[in-house]
Structures are given as structure tokens and as C-alpha cells.
Write a structure and sequence with these properties.
By secondary structure, the protein is α/β, with parallel strands linked by helices. It folds into two domains: 3-260, Aldolase class I (TIM Barrel, Alpha-Beta Barrel); 309-403, Orthogonal Bundle (Arc Repressor Mutant, subunit A). Helix content is 41%, strand content 22%. A nine-stranded mixed sheet has the order 9-10-8-7-6-5-4-1-11, sandwiched between helices. The chain has a three-stranded antiparallel sheet with strand order 12-13-14, with no helix packed on it. It has a three-stranded antiparallel sheet with strand order 15-17-16.
Length: 403
Amino acid sequence: MKRGIYIHIPFCVKKCNYCAFLSFDAYTSPRKEYTDALVRETELRASLTEDRETVDTVYIGGGTPSVLDVSQLRDIMHAVNECYDVKPDAEITLEANPATLGIKDGVTLAKLQAYRYMGINRLSMGVQAMDNARLDRLGRIHTKENVTRDMELIRKKGFDNVSLDLMFSVPGETTADALADLKEVIGFGPEHISCYSLQIEEGTPFGDMAANGELIEVSDEEDRATYHEICRILRESGYEHYEISNFAKPGYRSRHNSLYWNMDDYIGLGLGASGFTGGVRYKNTEDLEEYIALISEGRLPTAEEHVNTAFDNISEAVFTGLRRTEGVTYEEAADAYFRAPDAEGSRPEDSEACRDLFRKVFAEAEKEAEEYAERGLLIIDEKGLRLTEQGIDISNSIMSLFV
């Protein structure tokens, strides 16, 4: 089984109009105190196991991790390497936003060089749009010119694994607008592209505007039409559609995110971070002051903890596995089931027995699943289940059968 580390950096220059993620103002928040606490949490989590654990991936997300000082990020990476056995070929990702890497080219290049020295070998950039008016509407701090400049400098500094995020179905945006953005982003030649449909969340500026009738959401019909065109264009451009929202050139799938969809272990570090280790799911406190205080007392900042049952495991394996275009196999589901401490017996040796186990556990869902299959939304065969491209449009309804 593979293992990853997720590190949450909850600071941003400015909160975007659509953002409901856990983040705080980068300039007024105690960044140094938080970094020190994060280093200490890394040590505390590592001390929970007798043996030094091996790590296949590290993902530093946020927030906007690139707002941290280089020295702060260096301290975090040093702690990770001191406490864990990070594989030489580990995928180490840093999320960054355009315009946060530096204003002057020389400053940006120096920062990128420092990242490389730390072992960071993959950058994930939040582009979201390639039109300045729409970027302003979204509340982003960068321009399309910033994206172009940063991509040139990133390549100049030798990063050969770059992921770019795009958002579509932005209010006021047409399908043609979204596809024009996509074609510009493809022109940068990123190894990975993530495309997300904008979701209006309560408690955000967009949420308030929608509630007051000041913002008109894109219709479901246009949203789905745009999505399918995006899928077609990316496939024709040489990208594998390997997960609902993710596309990669061959060999460049996100190894870290794949841990989540494959039910592998991952250690969550930082404010509000979640982890799944040894069959236990946990979540850290979302209170910044409490997080720092608990760690200063030598205590873990865990706010929630749940020991997965066999049903939890197989349910999550199917739910997350269906996000992948290849779907989930009965053998993968059985592996997850028998990993739980309350599972009786042992994992069947042959695939047919794994299928029988699957049908037994989800007997109540079988009829509805077959109805989806008859409608061309779900493929059920001797190996497992997978969504069709049309099935992705109602993926939540299909996945809910197995929860």
C-alpha cells in the first residue's frame, strides 16, 4: 500500500468570491507561529509509529502555499524529511497561484530554484480563467499576463510536471468562453489539467449574490454541454481523462490524489487537515488559535476520529473508485472490506468470489444499479463497475447507491 502526506497552508492574499475553503489573510495571520506548529505536528504524528514510515507523495495545499516565505516552507520540508522516509522518486507537489511567486523575474526564479532544492518537483497552479474580466469577477488577484509569465519562468527553471486548474460555468461565461480558456491553457503544454464546474457555496460572496438574485447561475444543460466539449478537446489534445475532473498526459496522473481514490493511507498535517491511516479517519481542528495552542502543549490537534468498519471501507472504495474513469473492481472493493478490523474471514482468492461479496454487501442497491446500466449511465461487467461519460453527469446519484 502506498502512503502520502497532505500539508495544509491556510493563508491567501485574498479570499476569492467563490471560495468556501478554510483560509485566512496571509498578511495578518501568524504565519511563523503556524509554521512552527506545523513542524511540531509533523514530529508528533511521526512519533505515533515505532518504525519510520515510507512516503510516496507529499502534497502542500491550501490556501495558497506559495505565499509562505521560502524559509518557512524549507522548515516544513526539512521536518518531513527528518521524520519520514520520503522515496527518492516521490511526487512532491506545491500549490501556487499566479502573481504569488514574485513580481520581478529574478525574484520568481530564485523562489522556484529554492523549491527545487527542497525537493518539490510538481507545481499545481490555480489559473481558473484566461480572461481578465472573468478573473476579476472571480476575485482572483492575478491576470492572464501573470499566468503566461509564470509558466515561462517555471519551464525556464526546469519544472517538467505542472498541473493547471481551470474553472468553467462561471456566471456570465459562455461555453465558447470556457473553451477559449481551455485552448490557451493547452497551449502552455501542462502535463496535467484539472477542470472544475463552479459550485456556488453558502457563506461566500457568490453565495450571497445568488441568494439576493444578483447572480444568475449557468444552467445545468449548458454546464454539462461545456463539460463534454472540454473532455473531447482534451482527449484530442493527448490527455487521458482519468478522473471526473482530471486529465493528464500519459505518465502524469496525480499520484497523490490517486491515493484518495485508491483508498491508500495518507497523513494529514495542518489546520483542518484530514488523514486516513491504519483504518482510522481523523480531522484536525479548524480553529487556528486552538491548533497552535494544542501543539504548543505537545498535544495532537485532532478534533474528530473514526475507526472505519468493513462496510465503511467498501463503501468508500466504491464511492471514490467510481470517480476514476476505469471505475472500481470487485477485487479492489474486497481488499478494502477485509482491511477493516471487524471484517470476518479473509479476502477471497478469486474474482468471482469478490463479486459475490460485493453483490451481498450492496444487495439493496443492485436493482437501481442495473437500471442505470440499462440507461447507458453505468457499466457493470465481470470485473467491476464504471461510469460512462453520460453517467458522470449524475455521478452523485449513482455513487449514493453505495453509501
